[in-house]
Amino acid sequence: MKKKIIVAPSILAADFLNLETELNRLVEGDIKWLHYDVMDGHFVPNISFGKEILKQIKRKYDFYYDVHIMVTNPEHAAKELIEAGADLITFHYEACENPKSTIETIKSLSEDISVGMSIKPYTSVDEIVQYLPYLDLVLVMSVEPGAGGQKFDIEALDKIEQLRSIIDEEGYDCLIEVDGGINDLTGSDSVMAGADILVAGTYIFKSFDVKEAVEKIYENLELEDDE
User: Fold this and answer.
1) SS3 content of the chain, % helix, strand, coil (to 5)
2) DSSP string, 14-74
3) Contact 224, 33 (CB under 8 A)
4) In terms of DSSP bridges, do strands 175-179 and 197-200 run parallel, antiparallel, or are they unpaired?
5) What is the Cα–Cα distance from 147 to 166, expressed in whole angstroms?
6) Is 0.90 topped by the overall pTM?
7) If we measure between CA atoms, which residue out of 85, 91, 74, 71 comes closest to residue 113?
8) CA proximity to 33, closest of 78, 64, 70, 55
9) What are the start-end ranges of the E strands in 120-212?
């Protein structure tokens, strides 16, 4: 029996000269989640895109919009992005002085919004354990946030295992997502460690066949199960 995996392609890796074609490929590949990275050029060095592009994509495509905000003012950004169509807002633990207040504020913006918290590679799981009961998702960054195409940091697997153990033991309703350097091998390793959601940018968008790329992750899982 296959383990259920959610693959959330990061639109940051798409060909923006052919964005409609790229999004149609995801639909044809039976992708349900779209990962949408928002960068402000301050919390991270790069600048990506904001609410207007999200709003336009939402009008045509019925994805679950997984919005990752790498910004210094998460509460302000969250409001605009929820209005534009975000289903899930994931902010960075390192970007706010009072994470619990940020969670509460974002949840107060819409009764339908889900809230996630992300941690950079240098942030330990111990620092965020107290917030897990209030979160719908925790995102483990397996690269430094801010740019695509980086190599997967294997230490992320230890964090995923630690989170999986805590979440299962305490019975929290909190998904685990991993983002950065995901391909068929690192993706299957992450799922084996306990991840529920894989953010895959370059691996998915540069593949010839989206369905086949996702299937390779499942195939690797089956191989690991057989060992």
Assistant:
1) 45, 20, 35
2) S-GGGHHHHHHHHHHTT--EEEEEEEBSSSSS-B---HHHHHHHHHH---EEEEEEE-S-H
3) no
4) parallel
5) 30
6) yes
7) 85
8) 64
9) 137-141, 175-179, 197-200
pLDDT value for 8: 98
Residue 68 CA to residue 91 CA, distance in Å, equals 6
> Catalytic amino acids?
37, 179
- pLDDT one-digit tens code per residue, 145-161: 876 567 899 999 999 99
Residues 6+ apart with CB under 8 A from 101: none
Q: Look at residue 3 and tell me whether its pLDDT is greater than 90.
A: no
Positions of E strands within 100-174: 114-119, 137-141
> Are the CB atoms for 90 and 116 separated by under 8 Å?
yes
Per-residue pLDDT, averaged over 166-183, amounts to 97
Measured distance CA(30)–CA(53) in Å, rounded:
22
Q: Residue for token digits 């949840």?
A: 107
| C-alpha closest to that of 10 among 221, 182, 130, 226 | 182
